[in-house]
Amino acid sequence: MRIKIFLILIFGFKISAGQIKVSSFINKSSIAKEEYNKLYFVDFWATWCGPCIHVSKYLETLQKKYPKDFYIVSLSEENPELVKKFAKKHNMKLAVAIDFDGETFHKNNIRSLPYGILYNASGKMLWEGHPAEIKDYHIDKYLRQNSKRASFNKMFVIENSDSLKIEEAYSPIKDFEFAELESKEDVESLEVIHSEGFMELKGSLQNILSYSNKVYKNQIKITSDLNKHYRMYFKYGSNAYLNMNNTILMALKLKEEKSLGNGDVIFLNFRNATLWDKSQIDWGENNKKYLIGNTEIEADNVSLADMFYKLSSILETPIVLDDKSSSTELHDWQIHYKYFDLMVSNLSDTYGIKVDKQIASFPEYIITKKAP
After folding, report:
1. What is the pLDDT of residues 96-140, one digit of tens each?
2. Are residues 84 and 106 in the same domain?
3. With contact defined as beta carbons under 8 Å apart, do 81 and 168 qualify?
4. Is residue 11 situated within a structural domain?
5. CA–CA separation, 234 vs 197, rounded Å?
6. I need a labelling partner for 170 at 20 to 30 A (CA). Which of 2, 36, 56, 82 fits?
7. Residues 221 and 283 in one domain
8. Which CATH number belongs to the domain containing residue 35 in this structure?
């Protein structure tokens, strides 16, 4: 009898462990059947993530090809009202759910968006990675290998969050507005959200100043008591937006002094560069974002300064540009980053950019409080 009870307990644990927790559903899929499916795919995304929209259209095509036995759910940890408006505006046909407390995001250690995980009916993870990299031959293979089916209601468990508050999406009135976040709100990286008429930054002050200076975050030297978390809004074209770094420092009564650090540095030489124009990649309007895969990064209409700021964050290494005279011009990009030698040849062959990695000096930015 003790053995039987033990087996029942183990079996019960496996079922609950395989369930995917969400706070609520915004949409049900209009192109797939809920019922019983062999495979479930969770697409982790956000409204501020431009490439997520590009990927969503790809996943819709994939879902239409497999309307039975395969079900896609797009999961966001944002405000439900914001997601609802966004889904309606973009006519999203996939199922859309909310993970308001970020429990499923955290459980799966989601650190970059978009990201996808494929499960079988038992809740076993079969595949994970950039959603654009899952192909129909993957689906065909896993459908052949997995015959068991599970109902939609058994795979997804709705757990209403006590902290769930439906609020209208905020639009700033002034050229620059900011608010200190009461807690870190699980903001480990910087969120850069492009909306109609304004930009929103959300994260630690170190990450925000890293963005405004276009440098790797560790080049920003700031004490823990000053490194608070903020939400900041900048109206496009305003003086606050064009002078973002000074605007932030003045508002928070801080000063910034430049110094030199020493360590690994990647130097880029643009003397003979032949950069792509803006016609190589087109993800549509208001999608001036990045598509980050396991080995390469793509970007649509992104400046030189923004591109290599993003690359320095991925490589976790300071990048120094030899010429910033054209750093505000917009370009399309496709850069390998996983293996350094391949990145060097890619930048040289495709863009005429010479790369050199050295142990050398690089700029640092020391942030302190202004004297009263």
Report:
1. 999 977 889 988 888 788 899 999 999 999 999 999 999 999 999
2. yes
3. yes
4. no
5. 9
6. 56
7. no
8. 3.40.30.10
Task: State how far the alpha carbon of 136 is from the alpha carbons of 57, 94, 156, 181, 357, in Å.
Answer: 15, 17, 24, 43, 40
Q: How many CB atoms are located within 10 Å of the residue 42 CB?
A: 28
Q: What are the tokens at 270?
A: 């643009």
| 3-class DSSP string for 182-222 | CCCCCCCCCEEEEECCEEEEEEEHHHHHHHHHCCCHHHEEC
- Which residues does 332 contact at the CB level (< 8 Å), separation at least 6? 276, 277, 278, 279, 280, 281, 298, 299, 300, 301, 302
β-pairing verdict for 36-37 and 150-151:
antiparallel
- Give residues with Cβ within 8 angstroms of 109, minimum separation 6: none
SS3 164: coil
Residues 359 and 281 in one domain: yes
User: Of 337, 50, 55, nearest to 195 (Cα)?
Assistant: 50
CB 264 within 8 A of CB 302: no
Classify residue 128 by burial, with Cβ atoms within 10 Å: 0-12, 13-18, 19+. Answer: middle
pLDDT 10s digits, 272-306: 899 998 888 876 655 557 777 668 888 888 888 89
Q: Which pLDDT belongs to residue 137? A: 94
Task: Give the pLDDT band (50/70/90) at residue 194.
Answer: confident
Nearest-angstrom CA–CA distance, 146 and 39: 8
Whether residue 70 contacts residue 39, with contact meaning beta carbons closer than 8 Å, is answered with yes
Q: Report the SS3 class of residue 359.
A: strand
**Is residue 78 a part of any domain in this protein?**
yes
